[in-house]
Amino acid sequence: MSQPFSSARLRGEVKSVIARWALRRRSEAALPSEDEATHPWNGRRRFEEDYTFACVQPELGLVVRLARLPGRAVQRVWIWVLRPGDVVGLEAIAPAHEGEPWRGGGLEIDCLTPFRAWSVRYAGTLTRYAPTRDNGGRSVAAELQFTAERPPFCPGTDDDPSLLARRLSEATWDRALLRGVRRAQTRGYVQTGRMEGTLRLGDTLVPVRGACWRQHRWGVLDWGGSDAAFQCFVAHASGAVTWVHHAAFPFVTLEGGFHAPNLASMRSPPEPVHRPLVAIARSGARHLSLGYGAPMRDAIELELASRASAEFVVDGRGALAVHLVEGSDAWGIWADQRRVLARPERSGEAR
């Protein structure tokens, strides 16, 4: 005979599952170099493994993303060059190259030194997005190299535990949450550094000397999984960088990030490499209020205005908008996602 349903037992089971995910701390040792390589497909639907680079400097944003979709034997290639009043980009599904997972659609990336240096190269044609989207193309060539300045940061495990605990305490504890947590198997990390090289737009040669955030993520990725989400990377004139992530599901909101001081000069006593954010609030389309350290202390206030953007729908499930944003002595990349499918009335999970 089956045991009668117990809400207390279910609540305890959900908490246990989330705790094992949320409080799994990585060791102080570096992540294994194998994590920079591609990961085997586990057979799950919507498996995706992406390598993303987002570079920003005054008046220029560059976003490059190459993703493996082994369940579909193809790759997803996204490239955007964002300048005020002028955006060109590419959204392509390219055939997978056997034995060459880091090449597709004219884009090639390569790990030169694990967790230290990557090369990014592109040669091809990008479509104009702004001020109006048209069929005209512009030849683009990029020769770039990412060099890390800080160690990797693992969202969910390196986020501030007090913020994580507060958000989990606000969760709606039901079976949908339990199923969602059990099915969420996305892993990955982010890293900040510098991107340097050249970018040719038609006949114009643009030197790239900007702050860069990169991401490597693998697992089940549903572009309609969350109702709304964003990631924002900001480079401050001081040399500091800020990265935040936020995802609102019907049953729980997960968010976090860090503020990292400029580590170019180490003559002064070293500071923590990452200061976890403990407060994230958003009001309006382009406003972030951020705080790190103890609540109400060392607050960062950012007012960000969009200067250029590209918007499109992914897999018919989620709308994505990528923005070049400007603040006081700061430039950044803001990526917004929102679900475009209606959710089933009696379920909190994506179908």
Give the total of beta strands. Answer: 19
Series of secondary-structure elements, N-terminal to C-terminal: HEEEEEEEEHHEEEEEEEEEEE
Order of strands across the main sheet? 16-15-14-13-12-11-19-18-17
Write down the Rg.
Answer: 20 Å
Q: Strand pairing plus helix content: what structural class?
A: mainly beta
Query: Strand portion, in percent?
Result: over 45%
Mean pLDDT: 81
Oligomeric form of this entry?
A: single chain
| Portion in helices | under 10%
- What is the overall silhouette? globular
Query: What is the number of domains?
Result: 1
What does this 3D model show about the protein?
With 351 residues, the protein is mainly beta. It contains 3 helices and 19 strands. The chain has helices spanning 7-22, 161-169, 175-183, and strands at residues 47-57, 60-69, 74-83, 86-95, 103-104, 107-113, 117-130, 137-148, 187-201, 204-220, 228-236, 241-248, 253-260, 275-282, 287-292, 299-303, 305-314, 318-327, 330-339. β2 and β3 form a beta hairpin. α1 runs parallel beside α3 (175-183). The protein is globular. The chain starts with 6 loop residues before the first helix and ends in a 12-residue tail after the last strand.
